[in-house]
Amino acid sequence: MASLIFVPRATPTPRPRLGLTSRAIPGVITCGPRDNRGPLQRGRSLSTEAILAIQSLKRLTSADRSPAAASAAAASALGRLLKADLVAAMAELQRQGHWSLAVAALHVARGEPWYRPDPALYATFVSSVPGSDEAGAAVDALVEAFLEEKARGGGFVEGEEDVYKLTRLVRALVAKGRGRAAWRVYEAAVRMGGLEVDEYVYRVMARGMRRLGLDEEAAEVEADFSKWETTISPPARDVLDEMRAREKSKTSATAS
C-alpha cells in the first residue's frame, strides 16, 4: 500500500495563455476560400484514377475521334476503373461535351459484370446529346441498344424496374423531339412488357405524342390510361380525384 501512496504524480505543464498581442506560430498557413464556389455536390468529385483515365482517353483520341478509335482508346484507358470511377468518368465526359467519348465509355461499362441497362443512365446520355444533324440518329441508336439489352436480360420485369427512372428516359426523349424513340420505350415497357406505371407516365406520353404530331400514338396512350383508371381501387381513386381537384384549382388560381 505504501508503494501506491507515494507514487509521484505527474505535474501538468502550464500552457501559456495567448493574448491579443501574441504572435502567430511560424510554419502554420491558413487561407480562406479562393472564390465563391459552393461545396462539391455528390457525384461531381472525381478520383485521381478517373481523372488520369479521362486525360489518357482524350490524349489517345486527339488525332482520331472515329467510333472504332474511340472504342479502342476507351478500352485501354478506362478498362481498369472501378464501377464508381467509370460511372463518374462517363458523367464528366458528358459534362465536358465529349459525348462520343462518353458513349465509348458506355461500351466499356457494358462489358463489366456489374452492368445492368439503367434507364436513368440512358436518360443522361439523351439529355446531353449535342445539337447536331447526327444527334437524332445517335439517340435512336442508343434507344435501340437499350431495348436490345433489356430484351436479352428478360425484358421489363415487374417489381424490378424503377418507374421514376423510366419516366426520366421518356421525358428526355420527348424533350429532344424523339417521339418515335419514346414510343418504342413505352411500347416495350408498358404495352408489351406489362410494366405497371402511374398516371404521370401516361400524361407525359400523351402530351408528348400530341406535341410531336403523333396523334395516333397519343390516342393509344389515352386508351391505356382509361383502362388503367378502371383498375384503381376506390380509396386510391378518391385520393387521385382529390389530387386532380387540387391541381385544377391551383391552375385556375394561377390563370386568374
Task: Itemize the secondary structure elements and their pairings.
Layout: H1 2-5, H2 48-60, H3 67-78, H4 83-95, H5 99-110, H6 119-128, H7 135-152, H8 163-175, H9 179-192, H10 199-211, H11 215-230, H12 234-255
Helix pairs in contact: 2-3, 2-4, 3-5, 4-5, 6-7, 6-8, 7-9, 8-9, 8-10, 10-11
Short overview:
GO terms for molecular function: RNA binding. This protein is 62% helix and 0% strand. It has twelve helices and no strands.
For the CA atoms, what is the radius of gyration?
28 Å
Which series of helices and strands comes N to C?
HHHHHHHHHHHH
Q: How many H/I helices? A: 12
Low-confidence stretches: 1-7, 24-43
CATH-scheme architecture of the largest domain: Alpha Horseshoe
In CATH, what is the class of the largest domain?
A: Mainly Alpha
The major pleated sheet works out as: none
State the helicity in percent bands.
Answer: 55-70%
Number of strands: 0
CATH topology name of the largest domain, in short, is: Serine Threonine Protein Phosphatase 5, Tetratricopeptide repeat
Q: What is the domain total for the residues?
A: 2
Distance between the termini: 91 Å
- CATH evolutionary superfamily of the largest domain: Tetratricopeptide repeat domain
Q: Whole-number average pLDDT?
A: 80
Shape assignment: elongated
Biased composition (Basic and acidic residues): 238-250
GO molecular function, one term: RNA binding
InterPro entries: THA8-like, TPR-like_helical_dom_sf
Region (Disordered): 236-256
